[in-house]
Amino acid sequence: MIRPEATTSAVAAGAAGRIAGWLRDGPAQLAAGPQRGGVAGVVGADGVAEYAYAEITGYYLQWLAWHAARDGVSAALATRADAAQQWLARWLAAAPLPGTRVHLGPVAGDWRNDAVFFFDVAMVLRGLASAARQGLVAPSAAVIDGVNGLLASLRAQDGLFDACIVKPGASPVPDRWSTRRGAFLAKAAAGVIDAAKVLPGVAATATQAAEDTLAASLRWFDEQPHREVHPLLYAAEGFLSLPRHPLLPSALPVVARAFNDVLVETRVQGRVPEFLRAGAADAGAARVDIVAQALRVGVLVAAQVPREAPDRAGIDLLRGMLVEQVSAQGTLPFAVGAAPRRHNVWAAMFAEQALAFADEGDLAQRAGRDAPLLV
Length: 375
Hints:
Radius of gyration: 19 Å
Strand order of the largest sheet: 1-6
CATH topology: Glycosyltransferase
Shape: globular
């Protein structure tokens, strides 16, 4: 690990610039073939995408919107956003219940394709809404209608969204945080709530279910927080992405407490753990996407809850850990030391935004105050 003081703003800005260049001009968004316009979850060391992923395509639309808000709308951003929306239309039309990951080569099997996930569908809707808000795309009625249909299927009898639904005839999915309800659904619910303000035709029943799921997520966040750090930070991101929501004042102390728990464990372990309340031997992988999430949440907590702001040394520690993982090409691995090195697309988007927030405080202030553009 590099020393935090060795990571200057110039070094961090250079790392962020390399990441942005790779995301914009590299292989993350497929440029040709049946899946053109879709965005990969992972790109192999050979520069070839392994699968197109609707959730990550939604993230990419959000990332493009973030850059449009920050730097201005350009033809290049609009072209990429349009290609992503066109892929989403084809993805939704491919089957009554589309696949979670569209693999570009042979695979032995992927249990994720046996289910449809509320989180993924919400990220698609959120990304489309943000791109439309920034003037990058005219939203497709077919995409909105397709998402409405999936959201209706995911709404349970109690009025809340389920984490996922298993496709007819498929095997039961594993019992994981991503397949059962929990506080992480705050990010998905927030995405639907925000999208309904922008996109015409988002079902009122979906918006109400999202509001109810957000309220339930705050209870879960406070009373039953995730032990896994990735979904714990998703919960924090959900509330931080709705700066004017009436639940935010109640959520901010819970968000600050969760971030402090992560920072304390980070200092104890010498890395951001995958699991809280674990010994060094069972803290899980040193996931780079989680480092980026933690840095971004920490900066936004400092911007919104000054009395409970993390100390600058903690922010610098996370920033140094993140910069250390950025390659000369602007790519990041899924986990520290993973071999062979594969390039994780969502970690790259999280990291580029986190480094910008950490080094340009006004960006964090604007993100917290003005626009829900957290990728």
